[in-house]
From TrEMBL:
GO MF, any single term: hydrolase activity
UniProt cross-references to PANTHER family, sorted A to Z: BIFUNCTIONAL OLIGORIBONUCLEASE AND PAP PHOSPHATASE NRNA
The protein's name: Bifunctional oligoribonuclease and PAP phosphatase NrnA
Enzyme class per UniProt: hydrolase
Keywords: Hydrolase
Residue span(s) of domain DDH: 15-160
Organism for this UniProt entry: Clostridium vincentii
Enzyme Commission no: 3.1.-.-
Keyword Transmembrane helix appears in the UniProt entry: no
Domain DHHA1: 230-316
Amino acid sequence: MALREISKVIIESNKIGITFHTSPDGDAIGSTLGLLNGLREMGKDAYIISREVIPNNLSFLPLGCEIDGTIKAPIYGTDLVIVLDCGNVDRICADLDQYDGTIINIDHHVTNEKYGKYNYIDNKAAATAELIYILLKELNFVFNEEAESVEEIGNCIYTGLVTDTGSFRHSNVTKRTHSIAGELISCGVKNSKVHNSLFDNRPLSKVKLMGQSLSNVELLCDGKVAYIEISMKTLEELNLSHVDTSDIISIALSIENVEVAVVAKEAEDGVKASLRSKNKVNVSHIAESLGGGGHIKAAGLKITGSSLEQAKVKIINSIEKEIC
Ligand SMILES: [Mn+2]
């Protein structure tokens, strides 16, 4: 299904709900708010469906306050739900069980399950935000002018690009990623302002968590794996509940000779782990072997009903199989 046809379905729809993956990151939120703001500009009746609240560091984005966790399922009259940046049906941050309307699935995860009626999956895209940029153009949204609304939508898309590429340093970056970033800058996006909002306003408790986590990093598998555990007790003491740990994991991955970094976070009902790879190890294989998914160099999984110790054994076993 081409984006042109997807844009037709969008134009013909009357009430559109937009949602994304659970524990939304900068790409999920940036793509969603870029599309929401764009559709509103076009006079469409569009709204957010989410069980979760927008993470603090992303709340600067326009209409971010609408990601407040109040609308968890499609509201009456919705004829289209667009799911962004979400590979697995189980990870959708909305209750769609009772919904029988159309679903559009737009994503860039290799492991995408194609759960939509219409699926647009481009795993060459560095971020779903790249696809939203192209989709908005397909919807005849004009980017090449300096208007406040264009800049605001640009900020959303730029946020998706920056956060899913480690600020344009990962190998998923292509010429197209930079071209889109360049076009966004020419319509008023201030790159350093977005970077400041994203990365230079951490709460003190978060910096303390970084310090604690990194001082407890363990090197396993002949120093090829950096493993970090974060207990619920630590999170409670620091009063951090929905904390993003992507900065912690990238510092762990920067250790010399490390090929894979893991952050395992204890939750009420088990352990959630993020995995990152520096070069060749495919962490999406590792995540999939334990019921998760993701990209070659960034993946995630959840082991329900497990302690941190039990999860570690499983994760390390699975990494060893992939490394050897
Ligand atoms: Mn993404």
